[in-house]
Amino acid sequence: QVQVVESGGGLVQAGGSLKLSCVVSGSAFKINSADWYRQAPGTQRQLVASIDSGRFRNYIVKGRFTISLDDARNTVYLQIDNLRPEDTAVYSCSVRSTSAAYWGPGTQVTVSS
Question: Could you tell me the CA-to-CA distances from 100 to 20, 22, 23, 74 in Å, in that order?
């Protein structure tokens, strides 16, 4: 059984940084591509960044986000710098192998001004 767990969220002051992790465990699942999403209260879920096994990255939200993939640890990271109050949201990851896709429950990021 595959499990996806995000971590690294928390309460941080504006201007700070966080590095979120998305760890995939179980079975023989190998991450082929992954996305980070975020959802603030009362809003639709927003795609933040994507990465594939060729390390091609795509950022929907430009400038302060860096997505990376560690194959050995089966982990996807999202570095967020210069955090702003409007970054407050639940951040979740979606991971895909060649045949399946899974979501994690998310991690809360709260940015105080």
Answer: 23, 16, 16, 15
Pairing of strands 65-70, 18-25: unpaired
Q: Per-residue pLDDT for the chain (113 aa), expressed as one digit of tens each?
A: 899 999 999 999 999 999 999 999 987 888 999 999 999 999 999 999 999 987 878 787 778 999 999 999 999 999 999 999 999 999 999 999 988 999 999 999 999 99
Q: Are 34 and 49 in contact (CB under 8 A)?
A: no
Please count the other Cβ atoms lying within 10 Å of the Cβ belonging to residue 68: 15
Look at phi and psi of residue 28 and say left if phi exceeds 0, alpha if psi is from -120 to 50, else beta: alpha
Among the listed residues 88, 106, 109, the one whose alpha carbon sits nearest the alpha carbon of residue 18: 109
Instruction: Tell me if 34 sits within 8 A of 47, measured CB to CB.
Output: no
Rounded to 5 degrees, φ, ψ at 98 are -75, -10
Question: CA-CA distance, 45 to 39, in Å (whole number)?
Answer: 4
Residue 68 CA to chain centroid, in angstroms?
9
